[in-house]
Design goal:
Elements: H1 10-21, H2 23-36, H3 42-60, H4 70-78, H5 88-94, H6 100-113, H7 119-124, H8 131-144, H9 150-157, H10 162-179
């Protein structure tokens, strides 16, 4: 395996792993971890999460029960740098994950990869209890929202959290421009 040194950023570690194993292989591994939450692929988890992954791996694996949300969170982040269309289903499914960090990161992947198939699930995140998830959903709606998602974007534009509200306004503006119609 390529040297994925712990001092490197996640992007650098993942790109090094892709150079060694191939983008499709890394993306497939990320999608499997995102789907299953498995800690079995230690080499990939270390590349994805660095030193934090090593620490969590030592803590979580012996317990073998409810092994934390870090593995699927890192796997989703990995898909920002190593992508295969075969991972789309795992990302869309992760938008309904019980851990907010996983939902947030999956929404970021939806934005980066412009996954239109996730639009309905993204719109549903407008009601998420966690402001960071709602903000990520607003950013994703900018990229993939359609006319039927306007009510979700409007809700975000009127959110009680300032960051979410700003992102919701940006979503409304971007959707209006992209859909070539005034949505307000």
């Amino acid at each position: 395996m390529a040297d994925t040194g712990m001092a490197a950023t996640p992007a650098e570690r993942i790109r090094a792993l892709c150079a060694d194993q191939g983008v499709d292989s890394v993306a497939a591994g990320c999608a499997e971890i995102l789907r299953s939450g498995s800690w079995e692929n230690r080499a990939l988890l270390v590349a994805l999460g660095g030193q934090h992954a090593i620490n969590e791996y030592e803590r979580a694996v012996p317990a073998s029960v409810d092994q934390s949300y870090w593995a699927p969170t890192w796997a989703a982040r990995g898909l920002l740098y190593a992508w295969s269309d075969a991972a789309e289903h795992a990302v869309v499914g992760a938008l309904r994950h019980p851990a907010w960090r996983v939902r947030e990161m999956a929404a970021k992947v939806v934005t980066a990869r412009e996954l239109g198939s996730a639009a309905d699930d993204i719109a549903a995140l407008a009601a998420d209890p966690v402001p960071r998830v709602r903000a990520a959903a607003a950013r994703a709606l900018r990229a993939v929202g359609e006319f039927e998602h306007v009510s979700a974007a409007l809700a975000l534009a009127h959110d009680s959290d300032l960051q979410v509200r700003v992102r919701g306004e940006q979503a409304m503006t971007a959707m209006s421009a992209r859909l070539d119609r005034d949505l307000r």
